[in-house]
């Protein structure tokens, strides 16, 4: 898989790099200790955001988050241990960190962050990437870190929000993931929260049926699109509390996605009418950009041209 980091940024962002090893709790402890001030920044950021977007005080957000604990403790105890480690290192409560990790479920449909994701399998190489469009205040205020974790003879790297265990990233097996927010109703407390689902992808060894089947069997707690890629190409997973619908590559090896469902979903799932107004435009635009260089295939040149 081709991984490209562009040095041309719209705004200048300082990113803390944290390297973690050991048990889940040890990884969390290193994360929380090294990024202590950033974790507190994340808590402050979402405290304000939940109040303004969801009319929910932080104490209520923690009570909401606690509803996920029984499922996580039974099915994913390693993530509970890691969150406990983050909390200890940062000097905050476990519920504070749990609330950060279920922030999508707390405020499903209430955030206005938009993003465009792309997976493109060419001849001999595979490209996976996305952007993350949010308001300028959020770009400057939201703490972020480059988290590297070594576990079970494999390693992963991700650009994460401080205190959150899963995000956009790549592992040493060449498996990567991206995320698109989807505005649709409903949440399940007995399924995998969105950001922890991203972590499970980053702990997998391939974009195999087994990797995807794990998520399909466990389910994802809220609405989102997870794009999984490796050297063999990509698979999109349009998720909601009821089920997961696969979006496979087109004949030219492409998957493109923004912030609305592309495929039909369970009738119990109602997508909001208040979608980001540019989600359809961005999907059309990424298609135009790809069409312009389709004969050349995925390349560094393509990635450098797209932001312009």
TrEMBL record:
Residues 120-296 form the Peptidase C45 hydrolase domain. It comes from the Eukaryota. Pfam families: AAT. InterPro entries: C45_proenzyme-like, Peptidase_C45, Peptidase_C45_hydrolase. This is Peptidase C45 hydrolase domain-containing protein. It comes from Penicillium daleae.
